[in-house]
Amino acid sequence: MGGRALTLYEEVHPQAKLNNRLVHIRFLKRLAELLPPGVAPIIVADAAFRVPFHRAVERRGWRWVGRVRGRDFVRLSRRWASCTTVFRRATATPRLPGTGDWVRSNALRALFVLVN
Q: Per-residue pLDDT tens for 75-94?
């Protein structure tokens, strides 16, 4: 597709199913069934999707782009900081603080981009 973003598959679920691990696993399984062999999509997810979902994406050999916000903590250097604190430094011009960890209790390594 020449680098274009294209929605391949999406699902809508009731609020009661928010962050339901089984729903996430079924979604990824169904998407994998729809894709030709060897295709590795980039999953774009909202901040409501947590670390276990992103780990499931990585286990399939796929990549993801997600938002972090709110009460989450990130480690972009030596110390953990709340997303709220880090976001105060954001501007309209994207900056690349680099690789860091997301969520103290279940840290996931990620490349961070800071933008308002």
A: 999 999 999 999 999 999 99
Q: What are phi and psi of 98, to 5 degrees?
A: 110, -160
What are the Cα distances from residue 114, in Å, to 18, 48, 87?
Answer: 26, 18, 7
Given 3-state DSSP classes, what are the helix, strand and coil percentages for the chain, each rounded to the nearest 5? 30, 25, 45
What is the residue type of 20?
N
User: Could you tell me if 86 and 74 are in contact, meaning their C-beta atoms sit under 8 angstroms apart?
Assistant: yes
Say whether 56 sits in a helix, a strand or coil. Answer: helix
* Spans in the chain with pLDDT lower than 70: 1-2
**Contact predicate 45/53, CB 8 Å:** yes
The single-letter DSSP state of residue 29 is H
Whether the pTM exceeds 0.85: the reply is yes
